[in-house]
Input
Amino acid sequence: MTQLRWGVLGVAGIATRKVIPGMQKGEWSTVTAIASRDLAKAQAAASALGIPKAYGSYEELLADPTIDAVYNPLPNHLHVPWTIRAADAGKHVLCEKPIALSSVEARTLLQVRARTGVKIQEAFMVRSHPQWLEARRLVTGGSIGDLRAMLGVFSYFNDEPSNIRNVPAYGGGALMDIGCYLVNTSRFITGREPSRVAGAVQRDPAFGIDRLTSMLLDYDGIHLAGTCSTQMVYYQRIQIFGTLGQIEIRIPFNAPPDRQCEIVLDNGKDLYGGGQEVLTFPICDQYTLQGDRFSKAVLDGTDLSDPLEDSIRNMECMEAVFRSAESGRWERPGGA
Output
């Protein structure tokens, strides 16, 4: 087999607009089927995207013996149930973030992985992008001296009552939807787990979801300060500070697939940019890279770059943010 054959559960916008087109450009990935509970929607998506097979149920897709792996972009509360069903059908699974609604729920996938022998990974596509890999290389290589802090913001505006991101029962809210990236990338850059976490949350009075969440993650002397919001101006930026310089990632999360990305390395010479060097990266699609990394690991029988254990630790950090917002105290990830 030269390419891993993928099936997609659902016709979510993230799948049809970003992930599938990205995977279709991959060297090691091919998308062969898509399913929806509405056959007409599956057929329309298959026709628009040039996918050979369309199914009117998720069960039909999972029963297809020609499909090797499944991409699960369903609403958050369906991530674990359908990941389990896919694994039980013998399919490897790339599941959208957050992989579960809680760390307890996420841990159930460890037993599923052990029982079925399939590979299961959370889809944090940013970890595949060259700009993040280079930022980590610069930090670990000492280009900005000793790492001291990260600052991050990720926001957009969405107050539609019917949108699944505004439904608490579906795992809606800012931290689960986009704040998870701030937690994940800070762990990625530091190579550590935070020892304590503080959080502040503002909830939408009608929806009940967190519409504004801020966090402070203490990596024993290295701090992440981050804010995410689903009811704020569309914006995203990451800054990484060391003793001798800083790195700015201008479009850290929704990196465009059709233009170069830039990060700024600044040695702090002055406040007017005199010490800045702009690093550019060739045009690439992070969803292509993500799909191919997963596919290659399956085809080669090698370990995934980001195992389930990493996803569980990320979820534990987010839970600590919520607990801190309630308690008004520092909370320990994984603590009761």
